[in-house]
Design brief:
Helices cover 33% and strands 20% of the residues. The chain has 393 residues and is of the alpha+beta class.
Length: 393
């Protein structure tokens, strides 16, 4: 079986969604992705030799519908002969695209694939696709659908995390993000030739525990708690909500693109690989819990033949503060290795684009420290989770 080598990693900055229009609100998600594809061409990627482009999209609706990846190919003026498609596994969509691309290369069905994700929450908000499970009571009962914040509060309550612990994690995320150096993989976003965004938005260096303690919980009085209590008899809901706007992931717009290829593809391009995609795993927990991610990580590590002690860098999506806190506890990994420059709580979670961003960040961090293994983990709605192990050379 061939290896799935990583030859390049690029991503846009994460632009925060704001009322009245954020920095990237005027740029469609296909154009965010197209700018990355053009950059890859500028760096020497032979677009005509790309066998496939696989892009994760959480909400394939409106301008993100009908194969956003193929639209981006056309916007980037890549050859008409380059095929492209999307995958949608909610927040795990970007990681799923990377795994799909890697599987093509490892199986010998493709030599060179671009994978990643794109999402504009400014232009295509969550639930723009009007999912029936959110409006039909019978389907909602079948799937256990609740507001994702209720899932986060449920998971935090079941695992004994306090409001103070969740707030403290958010403070750490903001301080780490505010102090972060420039990411090597970031490609500035341009409009009419002018740069409109160079770095991730959202980090607030003045964030304090006292300030966060004053915020009202978001999900404590959500009527869908009744569905949780019916689904898990004996569960005692928290007397007040646990997560707030500060401990929830910030909404953002972004795109990511990772070049994955075989050893032969690298030789033909005259490039040495930066690393490789080693393994991946999908898991699920009973919806609406968000606690299946640790098992995904364990399975991916086992497939890679390594232990958590071998991981030098971990990028755990901050799908609310509870996610990284629970993963650190269950996996036994040091906080010094996890989200060392912040994450979704401070600088945004652009849904389908996040998987590629986590990989790009991990590769940047590993290159700075001399290489090694990275672990990427994302939990998503309806109880699904995914983990990917990478190695930087």
């Amino acid at each position: 079986m061939s290896e799935a080598f990583i030859y390049d990693t690029v991503r846009t900055p994460r632009g925060r969604v704001k009322r009245g229009g954020g920095t990237l609100a005027g740029v469609p998600s296909y154009e965010l992705l197209a700018q990355l594809l053009r950059e890859l061409g500028t760096r020497g990627l032979p677009a005509e030799r790309v066998d496939d482009v696989v892009i994760g999209v959480n909400t394939p609706a409106a301008e993100q519908a009908t194969d956003l990846a193929r639209v981006a190919i056309m916007a980037a003026e890549w050859p008409d002969t380059v095929p492209a498609g999307i995958v949608s596994r909610m927040c795990c969509s970007g990681l799923d695209a990377i795994a799909s691309a890697s599987a093509q290369v490892r199986s010998g069905q493709a030599d060179l694939v671009v994978a990643g994700g794109a999402e504009s929450l400014s232009r295509v908000p969550m639930f723009s696709d009007k999912p029936t499970l959110a409006t039909d009571a019978e389907l909602g009962e079948l799937t256990g659908f609740v507001t994702i914040g209720v899932s986060a509060d449920l998971t935090a309550a079941e695992h004994g995390f306090s409001r103070e612990e969740l707030d403290a994690y958010a403070v750490q995320s903001h301080l780490r993000a505010a102090a972060a150096p420039e990411w090597e993989s970031i490609v500035p976003v341009r409009v009419d030739g002018e740069v409109i965004l160079r770095t991730d938005e959202g980090a607030r260096p003045d964030t304090t525990a006292e300030g966060l303690a004053a915020l009202a919980p978001l999900f404590g009085d959500d009527p869908l708690w009744a569905r949780v209590e019916a689904r898990f008899p004996g569960f005692s809901r928290p007397s007040a909500g646990l997560h707030t706007v500060a401990t929830a992931p910030q909404l953002s717009d972004a795109a990511s693109a990772i070049v994955i290829g075989s050893a032969e593809a690298g030789r033909s391009m005259g490039r040495e690989p930066l690393g490789r995609v080693v393994s991946w795993a999908h898991t699920a927990a009973r919806s609406p819990r968000l606690d299946g991610a640790a098992e995904a990580a364990r399975r991916a590590l086992a497939k890679a033949g390594i232990g958590i002690q071998d991981v030098r860098v971990a990028e755990f999506n901050e799908s609310f503060s509870v996610t990284p806190l629970l993963l650190m506890r269950e996996l036994g990994i040091s906080a010094d290795k996890v989200n060392v420059h912040g994450g979704g709580v401070s600088v945004g979670h652009p849904l389908g684009a996040t998987g590629g961003i986590l990989l790009a960040n991990a590769m940047d961090l590993l290159r700075r420290s001399g290489g090694g293994y990275g672990l990427l983990v994302i939990p998503a709605a309806l109880g699904v989770s995914m983990a990917v192990v990478i190695e930087s050379f």
